[in-house]
Design brief:
GO terms for molecular function: L-malate dehydrogenase (NAD+) activity. By secondary structure, the protein is α/β, with parallel strands linked by helices. It contains twelve helices and 13 strands. It has two domains: 39-184, Rossmann fold (3-Layer(aba) Sandwich), CATH 3.40.50; 186-354, L-2-Hydroxyisocaproate Dehydrogenase, Chain A, domain 2, CATH 3.90.110.10. Helices cover 43% and strands 16% of the residues. The protein binds nicotinamide-adenine-dinucleotide and (2S)-2-hydroxybutanedioic acid. Nicotinamide-adenine-dinucleotide binds at residues 46-47, 49-53, 72-75, 114-119, 128, 132, 135, 138, 155-157, 159, 184, 187, 216, 260-263, 266.
Length: 367
């Protein structure tokens, strides 16, 4: 082998005129072109130093789909970034403090938002609205200014209201694309799989995805248990299971006793959802479906009848993803009478939550 060359075989015929090795320079060039292409993939975590932000960033540091992870927080972001940047995966990590939101978000492909305050025992998610609404509005302004084409994945509560805030701000700035804005309600599906498994360990909780429709708080969370293959739960079992899924967040808030709400299971769910979005939009993987809280005009034709009867423009439902984000909002699954009662209760509460978020953004533009 010639010194300074890699012996990368291009052809197996010994007498071929085609060179059997690639010069190191050519390999370096190809590698750097690939790096340049890949390095466009910037994912920003807003609230990266928090209870969710840190483990979420850790999990996302492990995917090669991301080339640059920008950690933005009003506290500690450079420290968290320095720590994560020692992990031996390819992506670059940068930390951005309070004054550096624009720098963190510039040209981002995806912005994930777990910024804001969590619940303490006795609080509802809606009790977080007064603080979190303004935080989300300002971050949405940052998206509009710095990365108007980005996919925006909202974790901060109350999701039923924070997603409408993001959408309204982007509308005001003329950059709203409903196919790209998602409320992450994945934790409800994750809990459903786990809690069903606890009653019936014949299912594989990791591969049994449960459709959860409605929204992300209390009665707006409607798990569609009837579609899990082989389920024959009694009414009493369904009551317990449904209540546990709807109030799973409270279980964690109570157990943490003032130290916050779900962080690790949320980071797991959030990383799963973020990777799904990247696999569909960057890697072009098809057929990926998750339940997520979206603006229904993302698939206006297929949701027109539902919007007309419920007067809802936002809803969590199974969504199929494509290169542009929402590819299809799947039709509502056929519901049992039990699930239909749950859905009716969800719809009236959701209208209130959604209106509250949208009205806030309209009445309180950032000055
Ligand atoms: N969607 C879900 O299923 C789900 C699950 C769990 C928690 N949550 C919600 O996620 C949010 C975060 O929870 P947590 O436990 O990580 O809270 P946390 O307090 O531990 O972390 C929040 C982080 O946000 C940062 N922050 C505050 N204002 C900011 C701003 N303007 N810009 C950037 N960063 C800012 C804080 O400094 C903090 O580091 C809460 O609203 C919580 O209710 C949602
Ligand atoms: O319950 C909370 O406040 C956090 C989160 O929404 C959850 O479902 O765990």
């Amino acid at each position: 082998m010639v010194k300074g060359r890699f012996n990368v075989s291009l052809h197996s015929t010994p007498n071929s005129d085609i060179p059997r090795t690639l010069p190191m320079e050519a390999i370096a060039l190809i590698f750097s072109i690939l790096l340049t292409i890949v390095s466009l993939l910037l994912v920003v975590i807003c609230g990266a130093s928090g209870g969710i932000g840190q483990p979420l960033s850790l999990l996302l540091k492990q995917t090669d789909l991301i080339s640059h992870l920008a950690l933005f927080d009003v506290v500690n972001a450079p420290g968290v970034a320095a720590d994560l940047s020692h992990i031996d995966t390819r992506s670059t990590v940068s930390g951005h403090g309070k004054e550096d939101m624009d720098e963190a978000m510039r040209d981002a492909h995806t912005v994930v938002i777990p910024a804001g305050v969590p619940r303490k025992p006795g609080m509802t998610r809606d009790d977080l609205f007064n603080i979190n609404a303004g935080i989300i509005r300002d971050l949405a302004e940052g998206v509009a200014k710095n990365c108007p084409d980005a996919f925006v994945l909202v974790i901060s509560n109350p999701v039923n209201s924070t997603v409408p805030i993001v959408c309204e701000v982007l509308k005001q700035r003329g950059v709203f694309n409903p196919k790209k804005i998602f409320g992450i309600s994945t934790l409800d599906s994750v809990r459903s799989s786990r809690f069903v498994y606890e009653l019936d360990n014949s299912i594989d909780p990791q591969t049994t995805r449960v459709t959860v429709i409605g929204g992300h708080s209390g009665v707006t969370i409607v798990p569609v248990i009837s579609h899990i293959p082989g389920q024959r739960f009694t009414k009493d079992q369904l009551d317990v299971l449904t209540h546990r899924i709807q109030y799973g967040g409270d279980e964690v808030v109570k157990a943490k006793d003032g130290a916050g709400s779900a962080t690790l299971s949320m980071a797991y769910a959030g990383a799963h959802f973020t990777k799904t979005i990247l696999e569909a939009t960057v890697a072009g993987k098809t057929g990926l479906v998750e339940s997520t809280f979206v603006n229904l005009t993302a698939d206006a034709d297929s949701t027109a009848a539902f919007r007309a009867t419920t007067l809802l423009d936002y809803f969590a439902q199974d969504v199929e993803f494509g290169r542009e984000g929402v590819s299809k909002i799947l039709p509502l699954p056929a519901l049992t009478a039990y699930e239909q009662v749950l859905l009716d209760a969800a719809i009236s509460e959701l209208r209130v939550d959604v209106t509250k978020g949208a009205t806030f953004a309209i009445d309180n533009p950032k000055v």
